[in-house]
Amino acid sequence: MHFHGYEWAGDGRLLARESERRPVEAARFGLSELPPMMTGWWLLRPPSQVRATWKHPEDAADWLAERYEQHTPGGDPWLPTAARRRFALDQLARASDVTWSRWVSDIRWSGHYVIVCPNRTWPGLPCPTGRLAQ
User: Fold this and answer.
1) HSE of 18, CA atoms in CB hemisphere, 13 A
2) Which long-range CB contacts under 8 A does 47-50 form with residues at least 24 apart?
3) pTM exceeds 0.85 for this model
4) Helical (H) or strand (E) element with 99
5) Per-residue pLDDT of the chain (134 residues; tens, 9 = 90+)
6) Which residues are 10's β-sheet partners?
7) Least enclosed by CB within 10 Å: which of 5, 9, 87, 98?
8) Cis check: omega of the bond before 128, within 30 degrees of 0
């Protein structure tokens, strides 16, 4: 098992382009950088969209915390980053994907995703980078 990190930040109104977020229209889906509708579908995206890969959940949780703080100035008033990181570490250790996303302004969306590979929810999806399960 290993982990792939993905992220997307931009005009949140673009998330309404659901056809680009579903693999039904493979060409549009593969070219889009919008986050997929299902977390495991990130694995269907080109390897160029993988921002980082880790063997250990601790490293993936650290990346999530770092990227989240960079994209959400002032942090999250409801759940501090340290608590988020602890929850993420627990989820990743249990082979569950983690998504941290939120509106950071009226129109700006920020999303950070760590996807488990191979993915137990989507076991038939290949690793986007060709890595073997470890």
Assistant:
1) 3
2) 47/128, 47/129, 47/130, 49/6, 49/128, 50/4, 50/5, 50/6, 50/128, 50/129
3) yes
4) strand 98-103
5) 999 999 999 999 999 999 999 998 778 898 999 999 999 999 999 999 999 999 999 999 999 999 998 988 777 778 889 999 999 999 999 999 999 998 988 999 999 999 999 999 999 999 999 976 55
6) 109
7) 87
8) no
